[in-house]
From TrEMBL:
It catalyses: nicotinate beta-D-ribonucleotide + ATP + H(+) = deamido-NAD(+) + diphosphate. The lineage of its organism: Bacteria, Pseudomonadati, Pseudomonadota, Alphaproteobacteria, Hyphomicrobiales. Residues 19-198 form the Cytidyltransferase-like domain. It comes from Bosea minatitlanensis. Pathway: Cofactor biosynthesis; NAD(+) biosynthesis; deamido-NAD(+) from nicotinate D-ribonucleotide: step 1/1. This is Probable nicotinate-nucleotide adenylyltransferase.
Length: 203
């Protein structure tokens, strides 16, 4: 089916769905490990990998085509409870805050959780409307090597500190009114898309 990769994944009111956005250039086992951690610890029903047409904070000149990145991401996701979609291209949203607003409008009653790595929390205060994102849906931060301290010392973590949900209660996050966030520790992967591109001679 034409543009099948741009469709909204199946959903229903009451489902707990994690949203994991990124360029996925390329997707790798670190993305999968973080997603499996979130599925288990947050007791989510599904995770959607939102493969962006292009990150507004990065140089997209050498970014592979969206359909190619989605195909590769689906190979990595395998049979896990992960849906890979390029819905942002259809929504024509450039920033995460706009994407989340559009998804909430189109999926009433779904309990969304925004998922990000601790490296993203370190720079979250540079995102467009980052406080609005925090007020829109709960956030789960997955620990990544080399960014634990910088994430927790970041301006965003300081602002969010009063709404932190203890890791022991992470399973309640999807049912908690935002702002609400938790920091998940566990097995970590040292893989990164940047490292894999360099190894492949693409950077």
């Amino acid at each position: 089916m034409a543009n099948e990769h741009l469709r909204l994944p199946p959903h229903a009111p009451g489902l707990r769905i994690g949203l994991f956005g990124g360029s996925f250039n390329p997707a790798h086992d670190g993305h999968l490990l973080a997603s499996l951690t979130a599925l288990r610890r947050l007791q989510l029903d599904r995770i959607w990998w939102l493969v962006t047409p292009g990150n507004p904070l990065k140089d997209n000149a050498r970014l592979p085509p969206l359909a190619e990145r989605i195909r590769q991401a689906r190979d990595v996701a395998g049979s896990a409870r992960i849906d890979v979609t390029g819905i942002e291209a259809r929504l024509r949203t450039r920033y995460t805050a706009d994407t989340l607003r559009a998804l909430k409008r189109r999926c009433p009653g779904v309990r969304f959780v925004w998922i990000m790595g601790s490296d993203n929390l370190a720079g979250f205060h540079r995102w467009n409307e980052w406080r609005a994102i925090a007020r829109m849906m709960p956030i789960a931060v997955i620990d990544r090597p080399g960014s634990t301290h910088s994430a927790m010392a970041s301006p965003a973590a300081s602002w969010l500190s009063r709404w932190r949900v203890p890791e022991s209660r992470a399973a309640t996050l999807a049912r908690t009114a935002p702002p609400a966030w938790t920091f998940l520790h566990g097995r970590r992967s040292s893989l990164s898309s940047t490292m894999l591109r360099r190894q492949a001679g693409r950077d």
